[in-house]
Specification:
Number of domains: 1
Strand order of the largest sheet: 4-5-3-6-7-8
Order of helices and strands: EEEHEHHEHEHHHEHHHHE
CATH class: Alpha Beta
Structural class: alpha/beta
Shape: globular
CATH topology: Rossmann fold
Radius of gyration: 19 Å
Distance between the termini: 30 Å
Largest sheet: 6 strands, parallel
Length: about 280
């Protein structure tokens, strides 16, 4: 059981991160089929972690009374208390920001690993644009519930440094080329959708857990209420059967080509630390 005991977490914790619209919800839906595991869509812990660490920094006049050791124990306690009621032996916490917190995670949870879901950026932009066009009468939280603009302005906003795609893309590169890259594994959306058994087996091997027989014909995940409130129905929709689907992009050709060469993880020469890519 994942409980606080003597200041230490009992059980294992790992992290799902990476790019949006790249299979993290599908991966969580599959992992939670294992009765020993807990996994879900993006949660609040990464935001709480950042806010708490910020409040303990120099902007707080009392920060002089807080040592790094105390900060580490407080942050560790955030996880301990958040998951105190979970009966799972292995927990996967999901958030796109975790790739930007690799040094902290290495200190807090030395045995943890980060699974980053990735996908060609052009198809991520395409996926978001499809949601926008599908929900034409529902302003989305992705764009701060505002309407207007064009596919180009939406793509520019997504790919900007603070955008839904731009920030996690930069965080992914930080982790991929950083000193803790040995704790990182990339799972390509294309592999997860077309060969989920291979993707899951690689994850089990990477985190050191015994393999489990998953059911790829009956996958369940329900976040309809969350998506509705976010103004983006279907944002976390997972189809019951895992299968790759070919389709034509809805993006103009020049816009699609703008992001064609961003899949740096596909080039062995650009992987100096030997990050495992599935």
């Amino acid at each position: 059981m994942y409980l606080l005991e003597g200041g230490a977490v009992q059980g294992s914790i790992h992290f799902i991160s990476g790019l949006p619209r790249s299979g993290s919800t599908l991966l969580a839906a599959l992992l939670r089929q294992n009765p020993r595991f807990q996994a879900g869509m993006s949660g609040p812990l990464a935001g709480l972690f950042t806010d708490l660490l910020t409040k303990m920094g120099g902007s707080n006049e009392f920060s002089v009374f807080t040592s790094d050791e105390q900060r580490q124990r407080i942050l560790h306690g955030l996880f301990d208390n958040y998951y105190a009621d979970s009966p799972a032996e292995v927990i996967f916490d999901t958030n796109r920001a975790w790739c930007a917190r690799m040094p902290s995670l290495a200190r807090l949870f030395p045995d943890s690993r980060v699974i980053a879901c990735v996908r060609q950026v052009s198809w991520i932009i395409d996926s978001v644009e499809r949601l926008v066009r599908k929900n034409v009468f529902s302003p989305s939280s992705i764009f701060n519930y505002t309407l207007g603009g064009t596919v180009y302005t939406r793509a520019n906003g997504l790919a900007g440094p603070d955008g839904m795609v731009g920030y996690p893309f930069d965080a992914l590169k930080e982790a991929f080329y950083g000193e803790h890259a040995d704790r990182l594994m990339l799972v390509q959306y294309e592999t997860l959708a077309s060969d989920p058994a291979r993707a899951l087996n690689a994850i089990y091997d990477f985190i050191g857990e015994p393999r489990f027989q998953h059911d790829f014909e009956r996958v369940e995940f329900d976040a309809d209420e969350f998506d509705r409130r976010a103004g983006t129905p279907g944002l976390h929709k997972v189809k019951p059967k895992v299968a790759a689907q070919r389709r034509q992009t809805v993006l103009p050709p020049d816009l699609f080509r703008r992001f064609e060469n961003d899949a740096f993880w596909r080039e062995p020469a650009l992987n100096p630390r030997g990050v495992k890519v599935v």
